[in-house]
Structure formats: structure tokens, C-alpha cells
Amino acid sequence: MSDASDGRRRHRERWRRRVCLERQLHDGAALRISSMALRLGALDRAAPQRDIDALQDEVAAALEELRAVAGQIYPSLLLEAGLGPALRELVTARGADAAVHVTADRAEPAVEGAVYFALADVLEAAAGPLTISVRTERGPAPEEDVVVVVIEGADPALAPPVLDEAEPLGGTVTVEDGAETITARFPCA
């Protein structure tokens, strides 16, 4: 196995572990905290209501913090619904001025995660409106398929964080001369 393909395999394994960690948080601690919130609401009213309300507020805050951490590991919407819904939610949550068009087929978690977090970095740093297109480009064989991301209106200085996510998967990033367009290619295999 070549060093490059071994590196891609290790990178994909790290993404798989991130997905597993997010699922453990979601299916374990988050469910337990949600259950506690319900049980607090059903407590005998012998306890002062303000104490129960305060505990419910603390439990709700802990649950929100846990969800925020899980989303930074691997967003559950990305895992469940794919890049389109996850990116649209990200744009809304960040209040970013961006139009998102996704026609890409579902890809493995490493690819979708890399695309998502690359675009999260771009949205965080972008100064103006963006148009983001994500599509699947078919290769001669399924293992040669590529997810192509085109970011229009982007400062070329935003290319390095995109490359940081694409390169470990064997991907590339190009910036069009004289244009504010970044194109990234994320191999699916």
C-alpha cells in the first residue's frame, strides 16, 4: 500500500471514529439528559416549583451544550440527511450570506465531513455573499467518483482551510485567476 493511500485510509478511519463518537453522545448522554428533564417535570409537586424549574433549566442548558459539542464532532443532520440539509442548516445557524446548491449523491462520512467542515471554515471567514455548489462528478469507475465543491465570491485566501480538508483524502483545490472562485475536488474512494 502506498504512503498516500495509507494516509487516506487513516484519515477515513478518523472520520469513522468521529461519527461513532457523535452517535455515542447522541444515543447515550443526550438521551439520559432528555429523560432526566422529563422526570423532573413529573416530580411530585412537594418540592418548590422554582427549584424544579431551575433544575429543568440547568438540564436543558446541559443538553444544548452536549448537542453543540456533538455537532462539532460530526453533525447528526449530516449523518442522517446528507450535505444539502446540513449545509443549509449551517448557513442559517451562522447567519451567513450564502446560497447553497447541493446535487451531490451521498458519500462516505469522511468525504461528507471534510466537505462540511471545509465549508464551515469558509462561511466563518467570508466577508461577503457566497454561492456554493456541491455536486458528484462520475469517474469511469465508481471508485473514481469525486465530490466537486465550487465556492463563488470567495476570497482566494480562504482556499487553505479547504485544502486542509481535501488534501488528506487525496483531493485538490484550485483558485481561478482573476476570479473569486475556489474549486475543490474530494475523491470518494
Could you walk me through the main structural features you see in this protein, from its secondary elements to its overall organization?
This protein is α+β, with helices and mostly antiparallel strands and about 190 residues long. It folds into two domains: about 5-75; about 80-185, Histidine kinase-like ATPase, C-terminal domain (Heat Shock Protein 90, 2-Layer Sandwich), CATH 3.30.565.10. It has helices at about 5-40, 50-75, 75-80, 85-95, 110-125, 160-165; strands at about 100, 130-135, 145-150, 170-175, 180-185. It has a five-stranded mixed β-sheet with strand order 1-2-3-5-4, covered by helices on one side. The mean pLDDT is about 90.
Q: Report the helical percentage.
A: 55-70%
Number of domains: 2
Query: Average pLDDT, to the nearest integer?
Result: 89
Instruction: Give the beta-strand count.
Output: 5
Q: How are the elements arranged and paired?
A:
Layout: H1 3-41, H2 49-73, H3 76-81, H4 83-94, E1 98-102, H5 109-125, E2 130-137, E3 146-152, H6 159-166, E4 172-175, E5 181-187
Parallel strand pairs: 1-2
Antiparallel strand pairs: 2-3, 3-5, 4-5
Q: Keywords, please?
A:
alpha+beta, 5 strands, 189 residues, five-stranded mixed β-sheet
In short:
This protein has six helices and five strands.
